[in-house]
Write the structure tokens for this entry.
Amino acid sequence: MRLKDRVAIVTGAASGIGKATAITFAREGASVMCADVNAEGAEAVARTIADTGGDAASVSVDVASEDDIQNMVAETVKRWGKLDVIYNNAGIALGNPVTQVLEEDWDRLIDINLKGVFLGCKHAIPEMMKSGGGAIVSTASVAGLMGSPYLSTYSASKGGVVLLTKALAVEWARFNIRVNCVCPGVIQTPILDPWIQSTAAAGAAPEEVWEQMGKGHPIGRVGQPEEVAKVVTFLASDDASFVTGVAMPVDGGLTAGSIPRGPFGEDL
Ligand SMILES: NC(=O)c1ccc[n+]([C@@H]2O[C@H](COP(=O)([O-])OP(=O)(O)OC[C@H]3O[C@@H](n4cnc5c(N)ncnc54)[C@H](O)[C@@H]3O)[C@@H](O)[C@H]2O)c1
């Protein structure tokens, strides 16, 4: 078991990548605090873990609130006596031309996707210091590594997570705290439901939309949350003991280069 006797917090644990990671962490031996603004969803995931023999609890948190983050860390330490791992994963998406982005939408997205990661790190690090070190993993995105139309707000937040990760990796390495992030490509989770629904309203079946999005990845399909969870688990574990400051794509080759085409632009 790669996380035996470790205590971990997962934010955004009620759904998608966070849910898959909370379950994987527990399967690898960690005690897991499932944290989410969707308190019922987080509780359900903690119950699922407990029902299958794992150790988990849940806490309601809005990652944009410093009080909530402090409470989340305090509840975790109160229950298990220490904190070894935090996975800052909670996030929201927004797809709009920049001319249509409302100031309040910009502020809310940056508060959750970027400030939420800052607050998680700020309050987890002092607890990790007490037990001699720890591992921080955050969820950035391929949108934090390259630009895409309509994703300017989201890209700004995720690009911020990538550089925050690198800065903190350098700042805390000598205290045995590793700081890394993952950069997923398109992963089949509810975060994309509004987009799937709007495309479906235009006549395409959801499966066709997922299939079409998959074609943008050299591997030829979208990813599943469990495929991100396994990489996060690696980065959180001692298997990654000499890995810090990386922004690891989990993207089916999306950021590796363009999809190979024949000499006339045809599919190969
Ligand atoms: N699915 C993708 O294609 C994809 C790609 C790249 C990056 N990501 C990132 O992965 C992370 C997880 O997203 P997902 O795809 O699993 O989506 P998801 O919608 O399934 O899960 C996101 C979770 O975050 C929670 N959340 C939202 N706002 C919160 C807040 N203020 N405080 C606490 N919890 C909050 C939601 O309740 C939800 O449970 C996000 O940071 C997202 O930006 C997703």
About this structure: The first helix runs from residue 16 to 27. The chain has two domains: 7-187+228-245, 190-222.
